[in-house]
Design brief:
Layout lengths: L8 H8 L1 H12 L3 E7 H10 L1 E6 L10 H11 L5 H11 L3 H18 L2 E8 L9 H8 L3 E6 L13 E5 L1 E2 L2 H16 L2 H5 L3 H17 L1 E2 L8 E6 L12 E5 L2 E9 L13 H4 E6 L5 H14 L9 E3 L9
Helix pairs in contact: 1-2, 3-12, 4-8, 4-10, 5-8, 6-10
Amino acid sequence: MTARTPPDGDRIARIFFPNAVRRAREFREAGKRFVYYTSAETAASILRNRQVWMRLAKGMNDYMEIEHGLGCLKGAWDSQALGTPLKATLDACHAGLAKEVEEFFNAWLDVIRSGTYMTCISEHLDGEDSHGRLSMWRAYGGSAGVALVLNSAVMFNESNALAAYALPVAYLDRETFAAEFLMTAKAIEGEVEYVKSLDRDMVKRYVFDMLRAAVLSTKHPGFSEELEWRIIASPQMHPDRLPPPIVEIIRGTPQPVLKIDLVNQPEKGLTGLALPELLNKIIIGPCEFPLLVYRGLLLLLTAAGVPEPDKKITVSEIPIRHAS
């Protein structure tokens, strides 16, 4: 049996995930932070329990979270101009690989659709430090919104302790999706000899992950101002590294949630997830009782061991008020 080339993680990422690699590099070079817009109630729960809940994609605000990306992928995969050349390239790497990948993807499609858990965060702009983003307050803040600004190091941590992955969202219609798809196809085509040297099952998994990421990270262009990244997880795919879902009642609806503890696991290389390191600051959004929210969150930060908690909280200066 011919010995196979050991995988080079960075090279594989550049081949199969060129857009995500580029976006992550630009984000880190710019020293950006993330932000999670939510209600004051949810923010308090995160701080008190030191835990974040990931929800099924089917329950997210954009009811077409996955179907839009799936439609774009199917259109590209089935097209003569895009899908046919990519399939030929895959078959040049390993005979019959394209069909095998397609069957493997279809076998997992129900899980991708119905068993994908997400937490959605946004890129935080430095100019929003004092007031946040008005459109996000309106969409996610409710009558008392809070923005948790997060340090980004843990999002790019290469530890395998948790099978939860950060993906930059691409705001694409079918035409612009096709352009991104073509870029990835060309990246694989340019590395045929290297990909051919890798184990067949390994390559199949890389291509599967590429297609899955394309589905889960594509969103309608109408949401582009959100600057979203998605943290995705699938307990059915990674039962050894993720806790089982637990049913909780959210706004009157019982639904499964994936609870991720905000704790470091240094023995597994996972750091930066504990609240004192993860939390950069808190912005209290426009609401009727900002002082009450401030005092409540201050106590929770203190209890969580966040240093200098009073310096972590600001109140948005946007001059609007939500009715209670």
